[in-house]
Design a protein that fits this description.
By secondary structure, the protein is mostly helical. 73% of the residues lie in helices and 0% in strands. It is built from 23 helices and no strands. Helix 4 runs antiparallel to helix 20, helix 6 packs across helix 20 and helix 7 runs antiparallel to helix 15.
Length: 507
């Protein structure tokens, strides 16, 4: 298959652009129904004026599709490969979009939402792995965080496109924003088709020659026999050899401890995504207008505008980790983020308990500040951390299972939050404030720092052992230092061969 004829930084940025396209699609797809759906608009008229429960199901069933897609990657993604899974994800989302855009019944709408979700599950499980395995440790954090930033750009585009079309009469009010995501999905399919697969996946599955060529492209060298290429390949092969000592992969390996610590890695993959969803992030991202209208007593139109402004604040805050994640590390950003989120919700609860309009406006400001703290830590790190904390042997499965738990938690939060707001009002903020406060010690004691480490170095991150995997006793959670593999030097020709070359030159 033809591969884009660029190398070095240009190839890394081409891969990053593709991954960002996938996350732009993810963010847009999440946000497209936030303003379109409703009982008192064209969408409601076309689908029999669905009640609040049905509206919630239409939104949340998408998350079930995403979870199913993640499970498919868990069982078959390693066999299929990173690149082909992304291609399948884009193609599946195009099919789902066609079904959604042409929907005339609720049943067709549900089917379209599930199929689109499955495609997004393929992408959300595979893209972070693909990005992580094709860039160096010094910039890996920033590039994967850029993917998260683009997710919020997609969310903002969807929100304001929906809001603008809400003033237009006719089915175009909801069919256009739903159908528009096919543009992003088609661009993703075209982009990933002309890019190479992950060199780590290629080596793990016996495509040694192709892997060497890809490494040469990424390292900006003409030849696959260059010493730097051989060195990089050797490091990956040594890591794969250590991981494969027990023979072919068995699912029971995910429960193994020992120096590699697969079970600990899987637990961290799941934990960081569960923690993200129980920060209260999707109570705001999915339900901001509901929160503003029902807990703060603001008008519907003002609530919609504030919801859009909240997402814009979130978008700008998401740019911050691009400069901080590889300077300060993953752990500090998570702990600062959780502390700020907890404080914002505590103050919001106190202000809303007062019950005055000025206090409600002050609580609104707390929600905006909440989005800033969310953007600097618990937005990007849960996408980055599972892809880098897992070994090459289990990376696809670790990312997929973390994505599965992420989407199931999104479904749970989106389903539980509206009745919680209806029953306990502003006190729902206290629940999420307590959760956020709990995340700080969990990160401090159990999450090792991965900043600046190559993926092969992270394989050794739990060799200290112990309950915390060595995190508690290590400064800054840094359980391993940079490793140095033996230098690879070109093989010099023997003296008799050199003499023969000289004779030939004089002949």
């Amino acid at each position: 298959m033809w591969i884009l004829p660029v190398r070095g930084k240009a190839m890394v940025w081409a891969i990053t652009a593709c991954c960002c396209q996938g996350f732009l699609l993810l963010g847009y797809d999440q946000g497209e129904f936030l303003c379109s759906i409703g009982a008192q608009n064209q969408f409601g008229h076309d689908f029999g004026n669905p009640d609040a429960t049905t509206q919630g199901l239409i939104v949340a069933i998408y998350d079930i599709g995403c979870a199913v897609g993640s499970l498919i990657v868990f069982f078959w993604g390693e066999r299929i490969g990173r690149k082909r899974m992304i291609m399948m994800g884009a193609a599946t989302m195009i099919i789902g979009t066609a079904i959604l855009t042409s929907s005339t019944t609720r049943a067709q709408l549900y089917v379209g939402r599930v199929i689109t979700g499955i495609g997004n599950g393929f992408n959300s499980s595979s893209i972070p792995v693909y990005q992580s395995e094709t860039c160096g440790g010094a910039i890996r954090g920033a590039l994967v965080c850029l993917n998260s930033t683009i997710t919020i750009v997609g969310l903002v585009i969807a929100y304001w496109l929906d809001y603008g079309l809400s003033f237009v009469a006719g089915p175009v009010q909801w069919r256009l924003p739903i159908g528009f995501q096919a543009v992003f999905a088609l661009c993703l399919l075209l982009q990933v088709t002309v890019l190479p697969d992950s060199p780590r996946w290629l080596l793990a599955h016996g495509y040694d020659e192709e892997a060497s060529k890809v490494i040469a492209l990424l390292e900006d060298h003409d030849s696959a026999d260059h010493p730097d290429v051989i060195q990089a390949r050797k490091e990956i092969e040594l890591s794969l050899a250590q991981e494969s000592e027990g023979g072919p992969f068995r699912y029971s390996e995910l429960l193994h401890g020992g120096p590699i610590g697969n079970f600990r890695r899987i637990c961290l993959c799941i934990a960081v995504n569960v923690m993200q969803q129980f920060t209260g992030s999707n109570m705001i991202n999915y339900l901001a207008p509901v929160v503003y209208q029902n807990t703060m007593g603001l008008s519907r139109d003002l609530s919609l505008i504030l919801g859009g402004c909240t997402s814009i604040t979130y978008m700008f805050a998401s740019f911050i980790p691009l400069w901080t994640v590889d300077r300060f590390g993953r752990r500090p950003l998570l702990m600062i983020s959780a502390s700020g989120l907890s404080l914002c919700f505590i103050l919001a609860a106190i202000l809303l308990s007062i019950g005055t309009r000025p206090a409600a406006f002050a609580a609104t400001a707390m929600v905006f500040i909440f989005q800033i703290f969310l953007g600097i830590g618990f937005l990007p790190i849960p996408w980055l951390y599972p892809a880098e904390i897992s070994t090459t042997r289990i990376r696809a499965r670790g990312s997929a299972i973390s994505s599965f738990f992420n989407w199931m938690c999104v479904f749970a939060v989106v389903q539980m939050t509206p009745p919680a707001i209806a029953n306990i009002d502003w006190r729902v903020f206290i629940i999420f404030a307590v959760f956020n406060a709990c995340w700080v010690p969990i990160v401090y004691f159990f999450f090792p720092e991965t900043r600046g480490l190559e993926l092969e170095e992270i394989d050794h991150i739990f060799e200290k052992g112990g309950i915390t995997g060595g995190v508690w006793g290590s400064k800054g959670g840094r359980t391993t230092t940079d490793m140095h593999y033996p230098a690879v030097t070109p093989v010099e020709p023997k003296d008799d061969l050199k003499a023969e070359e000289v004779k030939l030159e004089h002949a």
